[in-house]
Amino acid sequence: MRVLFIHADYIEYEAKSKAMKDAEEIIEKKERYEECLVPFISVEEGDSSILDRAVVEIEDVAKKVGAERIVLYPYAHLSNKLASPGEAMKVLKELEKMLSEKYEVHRAPFGWYKSFVISCKGHPLSELSKEIRGEA
Ligand SMILES: Nc1ncnc2c1ncn2[C@@H]1O[C@H](COS(=O)(=O)NC(=O)[C@@H](N)CO)[C@@H](O)[C@H]1O
């Protein structure tokens, strides 16, 4: 799993059009979240076996930056070993559920082309990237 973390004053996105035929059914096309950690996530093959590790890594960053709100953003552009859309959707939904035990968690729509505006806070830990793997 490849993740780009942005600690943001806000993120605003709008689903524009479907990027795949079975894109996730969504209710709201536009959302805005204030004061949040935004992990842009490329789910890679086999990531369903490293969910616990991914939760630990994401919670570690949230704690370090003092974020209480997490907005998971599916982002198919950080890896050349992408999991299938079906596996990626499953992993992101499971991540959302597991992180919700300790955080307020939202998830941007899966399978949609989206416009977005993000305001990065600019402090030293406000931009981070991680490659999350299973135990070595
Ligand atoms: N492995 C993945 N990790 C994260 N998001 C994914 C993944 N696969 C698909 N998506 C989501 O589904 C959308 C379409 O992805 S896709 O089916 O691979 N298609 C494409 O990426 C191209 N049509 C350009 O978007 C992505 O924009 C993203 O929202």
Mean pLDDT across the residues is: 97
Radius of gyration: 14 Å
Helix tally?
2
Q: Alpha-carbon distance between the termini?
A: 14 Å
Shape: globular
> What is the number of E strands?
6
Beta percentage is: 35-45%
H/E topology pattern: EEHEHEEE
Label the structural class. Answer: alpha/beta
Could you list the spans in which at least 5 consecutive residues all have pLDDT below 50?
Answer: none
Largest sheet: 6 strands, mixed
Query: Ligands in the structure?
Result: 5'-O-(N-(L-seryl)-sulfamoyl)adenosine
Helix share bin: 10-25%
Summary?
With 136 residues, the chain is α/β, with parallel strands linked by helices. Helices cover 22% and strands 40% of the residues.
Would you give an account of this structure?
This protein has 136 residues and is of the alpha/beta class. The protein contains 2 helices and 6 strands, in the order ββαβαβββ. It has helices at residues 51-65, 85-99; strands spanning 2-18, 30-42, 69-74, 104-107, 112-120, 127-131. Strands 1, 2, 3, 4, 5 and 6 form a 6-stranded mixed sheet that branches. Helix 2 (85-99) links the parallel strand 3 (69-74) and strand 4 (104-107). Helix 1 (51-65) packs across helix 2 (85-99). The longest helix is centred in the middle third of the chain and has 15 residues, at 51-65. The radius of gyration is 14 Å and the shape is globular. The mean pLDDT is 97. It binds 5'-O-(N-(L-seryl)-sulfamoyl)adenosine. Residues 19-20, 41-43, 74-76, 82-83, 85, 88, 110-111 line the site of 5'-O-(N-(L-seryl)-sulfamoyl)adenosine (SSA). 5'-O-(N-(L-seryl)-sulfamoyl)adenosine binds next to strand 2 and helix 2.
